[in-house]
Design brief:
heterodimer; A: mainly alpha; MetI-like fold; 11 helices; B: mainly alpha; 10 helices
């Protein structure tokens, strides 16, 4: 008898099917989705080429593209990205591992949860944005500030979902493990981990997106390099083309990160709860 | 009734009080340490300010008193910006939720633009609207706009297909279809969108003020305190930032949860 078959049915099946239907764009839909960007670009081009607005406010699309290419070929974007990605990687590593640890403790032990959870919730109320000035006063514009802010941004969602993922495992699973006489290791590997995994992974995806946002914020407020700083720098030079190029880079990376994690999540889900 | 049920019934409240006591331990210890330890240090460090001085600063300190006017300005800005963004978000959400054509036309672009981290908008907005009220309001509105539009759309999309078909069979006119089917069905999701929108708009308010500067506001108060190395005022501002965020969220829930209960849906 396959133990995994006992897993809870997916309640959201109908919604997901509908979602996938929408995602599978048919040709006319794909064309329709391009209509708006094309229209915006056209208006932008007309306004810019007739010089209706100064370049500092609306640089022509060609200039933005040019800047984007220039920043890419000169390697400026990559040096900044490298710095940004190192910051986010270290911050996520610190924040997520601490969060998974604390979340496991809070999920397994009611007593620990009773003691820690109110303080945790109160501190979680303080947004990353609030920690920035406090940490700047303590550490200056040091790299530590960036790691800590990013770590805090992923620590909170990871802890909450980890604790919930463990706590919400149906009691029947544990009973099944007992009835089937599974060893502790087998029970954890075949039941507990697959059952908690979708929740935990959802939390990690949230943590990554929080980390990305925190990175941009902290680089705009307290950095002298990185993608976020590049935009602020462009703004102080009144080079709106750099600002828009930065927004495009940030949007594309955010999209790629989210899409990659979504795909990974879907694959993991299939492994966790095979239908 | 057996002894067992009585015992369980008695144990439940005891467990609840135990939870409260246990939960209070860490915060009380930390707050007490914060209030006492700095006074025991022989040398005052500018970054280590005792709790009582932080709490007294808005009443005694000259720069601390500024917080009241800043707070009033911030709240005004917050509600104004949120109203703008929420109305725009509701409008777009209803449009793309009710019309398949609008959905296919707008949603891909909307989702692409949504990927840009919110704060990355600030340099562009200040280039467009200057450093004054305009770019702050635009930024607050933008931060409320995305979650409201997204959840409104989601709420409308996930209404049961059966209901939609019934409405089509009955040939309900558009106005009644919106009032009787789409809005009630989507209400829980719309409320979630408004709730998220309130939180992000609050962060957007203080973050925008902090980043843009110029004028009065809680974010500007914190930024100035940081510039003057006044840890007490920074902490005061940040505590208020967190506290108001909490109150706004809890207040919204208290106001609107009864509405959802009438709907028979739990948010």
């Amino acid at each position: 008898m396959n133990v995994r078959l006992l897993a809870a049915p997916r309640a959201s099946l109908g919604v997901r099917a509908g979602y996938q239907q929408i995602l599978r764009l048919r040709p006319p839909a794909a064309l329709l989705s391009l209509a708006l960007p094309v229209l915006v670009l056209a208006v932008w081009q007309v306004v810019a080429s007739r010089a209706l607005l100064p370049v500092q406010i609306l640089p022509p699309p060609a200039l933005v593209l040019n800047t984007l290419v220039e920043l890419t070929t000169s390697g400026e974007i990559f040096t900044n990205l490298q710095i940004s990605l190192w910051r986010i990687a270290l911050g996520i590593a610190i924040g997520c591992s601490l969060g998974l640890g604390l979340g496991t403790i809070m999920g397994l032990s009611r007593t620990a949860d009773d003691y820690v959870s109110p303080l945790f919730r109160a501190l979680a109320q303080v947004p990353s944005l609030g920690w920035v000035p406090i940490l700047i006063l303590i550490f200056g514009l040091d790299e530590t500030v960036k790691y800590l802010i990013i770590a805090k941004a992923c620590f909170v969602p990871t802890t909450i979902t980890m604790a919930e993922g463990i706590r919400n495992i149906p009691r029947s699973y544990k009973e099944v493990a007992v009835v089937l006489g599974l060893s502790r290791r087998a029970a954890i590997r075949k039941l507990i981990v697959p059952a908690a995994l979708p929740t935990i992974f959802g939390g990690l995806r949230l943590a990554f997106s929080h980390a990305w946002i925190a990175l941009i914020v902290v680089e705009m407020l307290a950095a002298q390099e990185g993608v976020g700083y590049m935009m602020v720098w462009g703004r102080t030079l009144f080079q709106t083309d750099i600002v828009i190029a930065g927004m495009i880079v940030i949007g594309v990376i955010g999209l790629a990160m989210d899409a990659g994690l979504r795909r990974l999540e879907r694959r993991l889900r299939r492994w966790a709860v095979p239908s | 009734m057996t002894d067992l049920t009585i015992e369980v019934a008695e144990r439940a409240p005891r467990r609840a009080t135990a939870r409260i006591w246990r939960g209070a331990v860490l915060p009380v210890v930390l707050l007490a340490a914060w209030a006492i330890v700095p006074h025991l240090l022989s040398v005052r460090h500018p970054l280590i300010v005792p709790l009582d001085e932080v709490l007294a600063s808005p009443f005694i300190d000259e720069s601390g008193r500024e917080i009241w006017a800043s707070l009033a300005q911030t709240l005004l800005r917050f509600f104004g910006g949120f109203a703008l963004g929420a109305v725009a978000g509701l409008a777009l959400g209803v449009l793309v939720g009710a019309s398949g054509l609008a959905d296919r036309l707008v949603s891909p672009s909307f989702n692409a633009v949504r990927q840009i981290a919110l704060f990355a908008w600030i340099p562009l907005l200040t280039a467009w609207f200057g450093n004054g009220e305009g770019s702050k309001l635009a930024f607050i509105a933008l931060s409320a706009f995305f979650p409201v539009a997204l959840n409104t759309h989601d709420g409308l999309r996930t209404i049961g297909r059966g209901y939609v078909e019934v409405a089509a069979v009955l040939k309900l006119p558009l106005r009644r279809r919106i009032l009787k089917l789409l809005l009630p069905g989507a209400l829980p999701s719309i409320f979630i969108g408004l709730q998220i929108g309130l939180i992000t708009a609050w962060l957007g308010t203080v973050g925008g003020e902090y980043m843009i500067g110029v004028g009065r506001g809680l974010g500007i108060f914190i930024a100035e305190a940081r510039g003057q190395f006044r840890m007490d005022l920074v902490l005061l501002g940040v505590i208020l930032l967190a506290l108001i965020g909490f109150v706004v969220n809890a207040g919204f829930r208290r106001l609107f949860e009864p509405l959802l209960r009438w709907q028979g849906v739990k948010p």
